[in-house]
């Protein structure tokens, strides 16, 4: 029979087992108890800040709160003030402070309602994470349990950061970072003791902050905390007195917006809700913004309202200034980031064609290029000033941005090949087939952005510099070309991995930048003469068709500066040209920048060539005026001078002769610089000393002589469209020819019918019917020109 003692022992054992089971079950349930995952799922403000932590811009969170991304550290003053006000024993308890709980319980029981919380910072983090549930005893118990779980999973400093990042600070201000900037217009690290204390007391009663109201109650809380800090030895009595004298925060400050368009671009790039540390230089950003604003304001009188500027450090690839647009009335689209907008490139692709042709051995920097009217099917390019010079040296054609020489050069080089070349050196916006652009590609028929174009020029400069300095590093994409960076934490890959993808040789790039330093600019390039810096600038301007875009991009060895000016809505304005509207701003920006006048010749890819001074080509036996010049080795593959020829004159040097009509022993042999007839006709207008070869002596066989009669328009087998006038009637088609002898007469015949003659200016306006036609030209010496063409009707 079980005794009373045995029964007690048995009951005690059962109770102990049940207690152990309950504790075990409770432990298991506690461990399985989920915390909110994630703890905080609210949207965050997107911010950008400089490398030294200065806030440069912020975009409010999607829920309308100024809630900066979670901080990763707290300034000592704020942390100290916060702990002394909210949770002095934070670093000693396990998420719950029993003494505080007991005191709160007694107070609340006596009052019959919740008057005192007794919550630790850990419990408040749980409360905020759970959406600030109603304050009931059950919720308080539940928060207590979760706070203990929180302490097991998170380090004390992490819990402190969570609290400081998500605590309410009044109105729509959440977190210490947003509060510091909104109320004191400075970073948390720069807060005074008074400011830190003023913010530390706010989460306890965020509604207390309201300018003009509750000031005494708010000040009383702050000053009481300051006194407590003083009593604990954090600062002396003088500091306490001065701190209490500081004013309370007033109306919230507007947050800095130093680079709003870069902020928007980072959001598009997937950086929304993050703290983004950017490479911008705050001082330079402010300066470039001011210069751009002032410059565009001066253009407002011409109804030009938008502008953008981009400054990138060449060797590091870091963006130092990003002004995506200027402040303007909303009707003028100031929010459009023009740096990223695709616009017509104007003439900005000409330097790349110049370098590509040199790289192929098709062009020498001083080689003569034709500059005269040409007509292609559906395309009739013109120079900007509507003037033609017959023939110009290639580097001069680039610095003067002449259109015709580059259209003809592109035709010779191949627009399909150039299209591929541009894509491979970084022009991703060239996303349509080459035939879509055709030859107009070189005159603005393609679109690109300021960001992309600056990147392309900078890329080529880095290839050039890398050939001399293998230590240069920068960030490169999969194609081994750099994408200049905006963020300080972007990964960096050695430039040595690039090894120049062999798209353009170093020597051709060097030649391109040398030509871009040319000082002979048209009058449109206002501002160049006023540029005070002695450092040479390689630069290029561009103007789009219809005067819609004005561009200027330049490099000084250390920085590349890109400028765009125009109207964001695409409205063109007279006078909106690169040299007048964009270049002056570019020079003003360069005056704020240091330079690195690096100008080394890539000797491994160059050699000394003997060239003809007049034609710029390698000498032929007939060239008399020669010079030795260091040029890219690819010039070895280029043709010798095609303009100097040996001609035979009679003893008076008045006529050309040959053995069929003149005694060889009496001939005078002379080297002559002779241009084709069309080029010669325009060339002579700007070079009055130019002389065409003399006529042949009467009776001489001219079967082997060079052509002196040439058609400008139309070309043989061309398709001609009949122009339509404003009144709806069909107009004349202007036919044009050229003759090397300015005094010669040309006789015109169409389909066997004589039309008339022309002297000096050989132009004839004709009314022609649709269909096939034959044109016959004859000069006074009997030289003939016959060809067919087709009239297609109105376009």
UniProtKB/TrEMBL annotation:
<protein>
    <recommendedName>
        <fullName>peptidoglycan glycosyltransferase</fullName>
        <ecNumber>2.4.99.28</ecNumber>
    </recommendedName>
</protein>
<dbReference type="GO" id="GO:0009252">
    <property type="term" value="P:peptidoglycan biosynthetic process"/>
</dbReference>
<keyword id="KW-0121">Carboxypeptidase</keyword>
<feature type="domain" description="Penicillin-binding protein transpeptidase">
    <location>
        <begin position="307"/>
        <end position="491"/>
    </location>
</feature>
<keyword id="KW-0645">Protease</keyword>
<dbReference type="GO" id="GO:0008658">
    <property type="term" value="F:penicillin binding"/>
</dbReference>
<comment type="similarity">
    <text>In the N-terminal section; belongs to the glycosyltransferase 51 family.</text>
</comment>
<dbReference type="InterPro" id="IPR036950">
    <property type="entry name" value="PBP_transglycosylase"/>
</dbReference>
<keyword id="KW-0378">Hydrolase</keyword>
<comment type="pathway">
    <text>Cell wall biogenesis; peptidoglycan biosynthesis.</text>
</comment>
<dbReference type="GO" id="GO:0008955">
    <property type="term" value="F:peptidoglycan glycosyltransferase activity"/>
</dbReference>
<dbReference type="InterPro" id="IPR001264">
    <property type="entry name" value="Glyco_trans_51"/>
</dbReference>
<dbReference type="InterPro" id="IPR050396">
    <property type="entry name" value="Glycosyltr_51/Transpeptidase"/>
</dbReference>
<comment type="similarity">
    <text>In the C-terminal section; belongs to the transpeptidase family.</text>
</comment>
<dbReference type="InterPro" id="IPR011815">
    <property type="entry name" value="PBP_1c"/>
</dbReference>
<dbReference type="Pfam" id="PF06832">
    <property type="entry name" value="BiPBP_C"/>
</dbReference>
<dbReference type="InterPro" id="IPR012338">
    <property type="entry name" value="Beta-lactam/transpept-like"/>
</dbReference>
<dbReference type="InterPro" id="IPR001460">
    <property type="entry name" value="PCN-bd_Tpept"/>
</dbReference>
<dbReference type="Pfam" id="PF00912">
    <property type="entry name" value="Transgly"/>
</dbReference>
<feature type="domain" description="Penicillin-binding C-terminal">
    <location>
        <begin position="702"/>
        <end position="788"/>
    </location>
</feature>
<keyword id="KW-0808">Transferase</keyword>
<keyword id="KW-0511">Multifunctional enzyme</keyword>
<dbReference type="GO" id="GO:0030288">
    <property type="term" value="C:outer membrane-bounded periplasmic space"/>
</dbReference>
<dbReference type="InterPro" id="IPR023346">
    <property type="entry name" value="Lysozyme-like_dom_sf"/>
</dbReference>
<keyword id="KW-0328">Glycosyltransferase</keyword>
<feature type="domain" description="Glycosyl transferase family 51">
    <location>
        <begin position="66"/>
        <end position="229"/>
    </location>
</feature>
<dbReference type="InterPro" id="IPR009647">
    <property type="entry name" value="PBP_C"/>
</dbReference>
<dbReference type="GO" id="GO:0004180">
    <property type="term" value="F:carboxypeptidase activity"/>
</dbReference>
<dbReference type="Pfam" id="PF00905">
    <property type="entry name" value="Transpeptidase"/>
</dbReference>
<dbReference type="GO" id="GO:0006508">
    <property type="term" value="P:proteolysis"/>
</dbReference>
């Amino acid at each position: 029979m079980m005794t009373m003692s045995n029964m007690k022992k048995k009951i005690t054992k059962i109770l102990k087992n049940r207690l152990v089971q309950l504790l075990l079950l409770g432990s298991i349930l506690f461990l399985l108890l989920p915390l909110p995952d994630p703890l905080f799922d609210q949207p965050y403000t997107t911010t950008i800040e400089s490398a030294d932590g200065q806030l440069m811009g912020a975009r409010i969170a999607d829920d309308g709160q100024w809630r900066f991304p979670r901080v990763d550290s707290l300034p000592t003053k704020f942390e100290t003030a916060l702990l002394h006000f909210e949770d002095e024993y934070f670093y000693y308890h396990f998420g719950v402070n029993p003494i505080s709980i007991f005191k709160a319980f007694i107070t609340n029981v006596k009052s019959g309602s919740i008057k005192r919380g007794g919550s630790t910072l850990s419990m408040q983090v749980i409360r905020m994470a759970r959406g600030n549930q109603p304050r009931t005893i059950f919720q308080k118990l539940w928060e207590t349990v979760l706070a203990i779980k929180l302490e097991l999973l998170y380090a004390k400093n992490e819990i402190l950061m969570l609290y400081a990042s998500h605590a309410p600070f009044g109105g729509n201000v959440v977190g210490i970072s947003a509060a510091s900037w909104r109320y004191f217009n400075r970073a948390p690290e720069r807060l005074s003791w008074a400011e830190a204390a003023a913010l530390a007391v706010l989460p306890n009663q965020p509604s207390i902050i309201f300018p003009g109201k509750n000031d005494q109650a708010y000040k009383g809380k702050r000053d009481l905390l300051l006194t407590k800090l003083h009593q604990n030895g954090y600062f002396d009595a003088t500091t306490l007195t001065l701190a209490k004298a500081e004013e309370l925060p007033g109306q919230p400050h507007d947050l800095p917006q130093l680079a709003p368009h870069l902020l928007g671009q980072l959001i598009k790039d997937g950086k929304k809700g993050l703290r983004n540390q950017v490479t911008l230089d705050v001082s330079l950003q402010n300066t470039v913004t001011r210069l751009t604003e002032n410059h565009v304001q001066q253009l407002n009188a011409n109804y030009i309202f938008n502008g953008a500027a981009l400054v990138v450090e060449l060797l590091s690839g870091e963006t130092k200034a990003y002004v995506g647009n200027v402040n303007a009335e909303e009707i003028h689209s100031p929010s459009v980031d023009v740096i990223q907008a695709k616009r017509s490139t104007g003439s900005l692709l000409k330097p790349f064609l110049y370098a590509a042709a040199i790289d192929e051995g098709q062009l020498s920097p001083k080689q003569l290029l034709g500059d005269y009217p040409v007509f292609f099917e559906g395309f009739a390019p013109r120079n900007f000033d509507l003037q033609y010079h017959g023939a110009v040296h290639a580097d001069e054609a680039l610095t003067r941005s002449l259109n015709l020489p580059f259209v003809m050069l592109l035709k010779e080089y191949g627009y399909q090949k150039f299209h591929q070349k541009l894509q491979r050196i970084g022009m991703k916006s060239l996303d349509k087939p080459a035939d879509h652009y055709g030859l107009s590609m070189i005159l603005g028929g393609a679109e690109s952005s300021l960001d992309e174009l600056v990147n392309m020029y900078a890329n080529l400069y880095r290839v050039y510099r890398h050939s001399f300095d293998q230590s240069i590093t920068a960030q490169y994409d999969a194609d081994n070309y750099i994408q200049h960076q905006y963020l300080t934490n972007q990964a960096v890959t050695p430039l040595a991995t690039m090894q120049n993808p062999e798209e353009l040789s170093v020597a051709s790039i060097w030649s391109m930048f040398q030509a871009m330093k040319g000082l002979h600019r048209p009058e449109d390039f206002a501002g160049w003469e006023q540029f005070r810096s002695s450092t040479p600038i390689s630069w290029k301007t561009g103007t789009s068709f219809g005067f819609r875009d004005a561009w200027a991009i330049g490099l000084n060895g250390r920085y590349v500066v890109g400028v765009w000016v125009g109207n964001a809505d695409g409205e063109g304005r007279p006078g909106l040209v690169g040299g007048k509207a964009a270049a002056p701003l570019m020079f003003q920006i360069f005056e704020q920048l240091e330079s690195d006048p690096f100008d080394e010749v890539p000797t491994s890819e160059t050699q000394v060539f003997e060239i003809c001074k007049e034609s710029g080509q390698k000498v032929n036996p007939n060239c008399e005026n020669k010079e030795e010049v260091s040029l890219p080795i690819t010039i070895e593959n280029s043709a010798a001078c095609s303009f100097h020829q040996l001609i035979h004159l009679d003893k008076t040097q008045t006529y050309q002769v040959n053995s069929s009509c003149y005694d060889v022993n009496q001939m005078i042999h002379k080297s002559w610089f002779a241009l084709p007839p069309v080029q010669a006709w325009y060339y002579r207008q700007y070079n009055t000393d130019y002389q065409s070869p003399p006529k042949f002596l009467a009776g001489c066989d001219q079967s082997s002589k060079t052509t002196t009669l040439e058609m400008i328009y139309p070309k043989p087998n061309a398709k001609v469209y009949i122009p339509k006038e404003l009144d709806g009637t069909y107009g004349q088609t202007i036919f044009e020819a050229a003759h090397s002898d300015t005094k010669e007469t040309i006789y015109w015949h169409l389909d066997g019918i004589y039309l008339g003659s022309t002297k000096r200016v050989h132009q004839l306006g004709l009314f022609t019917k649709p269909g096939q036609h034959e044109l016959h030209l004859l000069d006074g010496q009997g030289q003939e020109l016959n060809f067919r063409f087709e009239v297609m009707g109105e376009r």
